[in-house]
Write a structure and sequence with these properties.
Keywords: Coiled coil. Residues 95-122 form a coiled coil. The N and C termini lie far apart (110 Å). The protein has two domains: 1-34 and 47-60, no CATH class; 81-134. The protein is 70% helix and 0% strand. The chain has four helices and no strands. It is mainly alpha-helical. The radius of gyration is 40 Å and the shape is elongated. The longest helix is centred in the C-terminal third of the chain and has 53 residues, at 82-134.
């Protein structure tokens, strides 16, 4: 992008448009570059080679600053302090207890399901007896 801007500035009779101008608006807004309309009667500002070089060196400084922040975040990230290691240990113990508790609850559920099924079978057999007692018997004549 900077090379393209440089070409547009140094080639006198060439026409160089920037087709990604709307994208640049977002970039300029992010870095706080004012994008308002120019005021009538003011001198138009142009990019010089020195300005472009100054911008690119500022970009290198920003990249170095961001790399430093990234390294700090990595070194101070989760699991790097003794407190977080102890927290992980506590969570693993709690997880093991929950797994054990879950297994015992599953066994209890299976037992209750068997009891429920047996209760239904018993209720159905009693209902069959009741229905047989009320149904008319065929005559023997």
């Amino acid at each position: 992008m900077l090379k393209h801007m440089h070409r547009g500035m140094t080639w006198k009779n060439a026409k160089h448009g920037i087709p990604y101008g709307y994208l640049l608006n977002h970039v300029f807004e992010h870095f706080g570059v004012p994008l308002g309309r120019g005021v009538v009667g003011t001198i138009k500002q142009t990019f010089s080679t020195a300005t472009l070089l100054e911008f690119s060196s500022g970009k290198d400084v920003e990249i170095a600053r961001l790399r430093t922040q990234l390294q700090q975040a990595i070194s101070q990230g989760p699991g790097t302090s003794s407190d977080s290691k102890e927290e992980v240990k506590k969570l693993r113990v709690e997880n093991a207890w929950l797994i054990e508790s879950n297994a015992s609850l599953n066994e209890e559920i299976k037992s209750l399901n068997k009891q429920l099924i047996q209760a239904h079978v018993d209720a159905n057999s009693r209902m069959n007896l009741v229905l047989q007692s009320f149904s008319p018997r065929p005559s023997l004549s």
